[in-house]
Specification:
Layout: H1 2-20, H2 24-33, H3 38-46, H4 50-73, H5 77-93, H6 97-110, H7 116-132, H8 136-150, H9 166-172, H10 176-189, H11 195-211, H12 215-233, H13 239-258, H14 262-278, H15 282-298, H16 302-317, H17 323-338, H18 342-406, H19 412-485, H20 489-514, E1 520-522, H21 523-538, E2 544-551, E3 555-557, H22 558-579, E4 584-593, E5 598-604, H23 613-616, H24 621-632, E6 636-640, E7 645-651
Parallel strand pairs: 2-4
Antiparallel strand pairs: 1-3, 4-5, 5-7, 6-7
Length: 652
């Protein structure tokens, strides 16, 4: 820490020295700059590349500020806009994203003289600024505007203006299906098809599929990427090339870890760590240390697991990265849970949840500050326009008075009459203008209060869903700990069923917190996520069972969505546990909307019931839950036992 601080002080000292002693090239530019009039000075500075603007700005800051003041006095709007554009891009390059966003927004919305290239650069900086402050929805909005306006002309401009691509933004949003679709569209639209492009394409595809827990698809793409990497870099001694091969090995190791092939995953992840450190990519090395630590914990080799978690923690302490640090904290909780130290496990799980909450709150606060600054800038712009209107009005009056003076000699009576009429009209106009301004101010204040109230209420509703989801996750963790502490199989099964039911409810609140709509949720997204959780929880012992999903994309309210989720959890979990003694078979879940009704069908081709449904399951807690939940949504349930079991639930 002390060494890092000493280096930082040296860097600051060097920068101060540089700022005080410009080199000869800068002195020459300043000399020419000072010979120009103030309009040509800004044009001269604006033509510089961004890196030179950043280097020259400290020496010219006072001059540019003086030009801004004079431009306001002379009402030179074009010069003011150009200075704002320079400031916005400068703030972006200085990583002051929250300050850069409102300035760039004002330029893009008010300056009608921007060239296509200037508009493209400003929108590119806006998109990356929103990504940096984790305002992903705004980044997505700007990206769509970029591609709509400039996409068809993209060959004219450098590709970096359009990066990161849309698939990466959807990946950050955790919308992996859409990330895959966009990634393929981007690949198909690209004119390049070399081995390096294919390597990047297949590696990214593997990452997306692995996030969707589709291990076979992920391995296919990673192995193809590895084949291309060995073809391109197999004989190379460059660290960058070895790092590429090691990175793909690490990705394959992550897939093996998801498949619970921990012994096979560990050497691949170690290879990734070695070359990541050699290439100074310490964040990737820390991620692989976390992965190896999790593998050893699952193998009950706790000392080795703790060793790798400690290594990751040492690296992450020196870095400003959030996700790997959160993962490391969660894995410490898992380590203590598996090793029997439940008190420490609970402590680390609580730290994980609290830190995650604080990160989310910080990101929201940044976005809120950015919006407030933008509102303040809009208000300043309104005041400037109002002052400009007054100036223009006064100029018109002066011109009119000059015209009147020219006709003074036409006759005193005519002049007095005209002046009287003008005076009366002027007074009326002034009075009307004042009344209009007062009315506009009152309307503006009311609108501001209403908007603020709506934002506060929406924020509170989202926070309620967020807190409910967090509390349910804590209950789930406590149930999971209790499962690990009890020896009774009957109690374990009961607690596991409760764990699954709570998880299905927590998922609803998680989706509501993430969506713009706060009262309804997407049934397709909810059911598919729920079924993935159930499938994952039974995947280790039921790998031969196939789960097919056919879910209509409709919106439902909480009063119907939660009971439906609990019904699916009960029936599908029961099918996994009892329908397939040989651990092979098919489970189908269908949900569709008809003219006036909705229908949920869950069927399997398992062994079915040994006795009629009512007699066999009389008194069963799970069946009672299904019946109660069906009645809760005013639905009708029909169960048939032919070539397996089929549940049909119809409701309005």
């Amino acid at each position: 820490m002390k060494k890092g601080l000493f280096i930082l002080l040296l860097l600051v000292t060097d920068l101060v020295c540089i700022s005080q002693t410009p080199d000869p090239v800068v002195k020459k530019f300043i000399k020419v700059f000072n010979t120009k009039n103030y309009s040509d000075r800004i044009n001269m500075f604006d033509t510089l590349p961004d890196d030179l603007k950043q280097a020259y700005y400290p020496f010219l800051k006072d001059s540019i500020d003086a030009i801004r003041v004079r431009a306001f006095a002379d009402n030179r709007v074009n010069i003011i806009n150009k200075i704002d554009k320079i400031d916005g891009i400068r703030l972006y390059h200085e990583h002051n994203y929250s300050s850069a966003i409102p300035v760039l927004l004002r330029v893009i919305n008010t300056d009608k003289t921007l060239t296509d290239l200037d508009s493209l650069r400003i929108m590119s900086c806006l998109k990356k600024s929103y990504l940096k402050i984790r305002s992903l929805s705004k980044a997505l909005e700007i990206h769509k505007m970029l591609t709509d306006i400039f996409g068809k002309r993209s060959q004219k401009y450098a590709k970096w203006y359009f990066h990161p691509p849309l698939s990466s933004i959807y990946y950050e949003l955790n919308i992996y299906d859409e990330a895959i679709r966009q990634h393929r569209l981007e690949f198909n639209e690209s004119t390049e098809r070399g081995d390096r492009v294919l390597l990047s394409y297949h590696n990214n595809e593997g990452v997306f599929w692995n996030k969707l827990h589709k291990s076979d698809s992920a391995l296919f793409h990673f192995n193809y990427a590895k084949k291309l990497a060995h073809k391109l870099y197999g004989q190379s001694d460059k660290v960058d090339d070895k790092f590429t091969i090691g990175l793909i090995d690490g990705n394959i190791g992550q897939v093996y870890k998801e498949q619970k092939k921990f012994r096979e995953a560990i050497p691949l992840l170690k290879e990734d760590i070695y070359w990541s450190k050699a290439d100074h990519d310490f964040e990737n090395a820390a991620i692989s240390h976390n992965e190896i630590g999790e593998c050893y914990i699952n193998l009950s080799e706790f000392n080795l697991g703790l060793k790798h978690l400690d290594s990751a923690r040492v690296i992450l302490r020196a870095m400003d990265v959030v996700t790997p640090y959160l993962t490391n904290m969660r894995l410490y909780g898992l380590y203590y849970e598996r090793s029997g130290n439940f008190q420490e496990a609970i402590r680390f799980y609580k730290r994980y949840l609290n830190f995650n909450d604080s990160i989310n709150a910080a990101e929201k606060f940044k976005e809120l500050i950015s919006q407030q600054v933008a509102m303040q800038m809009d208000e300043k712009e309104r005041i400037i326009r109002q002052k400009q209107y007054i100036i223009d009005k006064e100029a018109v009056n002066k011109k009119h008075q000059e015209t009147v003076r020219r006709f003074m000699f036409a006759g005193l009576l005519v002049l007095l009459f005209v002046l009287f009429i003008v005076f009366i009209m002027y007074k009326r106009a002034q009075k009307q203008k004042e009344l209009l301004e007062i009315k506009n101010d009152e309307i503006h204040q009311q609108n501001m209060k209403i908007e603020k109230s709506l934002q506060e209420k929406e924020f509170l509703v989202r926070e309620v869903h967020h807190r409910v989801k967090n509390n349910l996750q804590i209950v789930s963790s406590l149930l999971n700990l209790q499962i690990g502490m009890t020896n009774s199989e009957e109690i374990k099964e009961a607690l596991s069923e409760a764990y699954g039911r709570i998880g299905s409810i927590a998922l609803v609140h998680q989706l509501l917190y993430r969506n713009k709509e706060l009262t309804n949720i997407s049934i397709k997204e909810y059911f598919e996520n729920l079924l993935v959780r159930i499938e994952h929880s039974f995947s280790s012992e039921n790998s031969g069972i196939v789960l097919e999903k056919h879910i209509a994309d409709v919106q439902l309210d909480l009063d119907r969505a939660i009971p439906l989720g609990l019904i699916i959890n009960e029936i599908v979990s029961n099918a996994y546990k009892h329908a397939f003694p040989d651990k092979k078979g098919l489970i189908e879940v269908k949900f569709d909307k008809h003219a006036e009704t909705y229908e949920l069908i869950i069927s399997d081709n398992g062994v079915g019931f040994k006795e009629p449904f009512e007699s066999e399951h009389e008194g069963s807690f799970g069946i009672e839950i299904i019946k109660i939940l069906t009645e809760q949504i005013n639905g009708r349930i029909q169960v048939t036992d032919k070539n397996g079991t089929r549940y049909s639930i119809v409701f309005n």
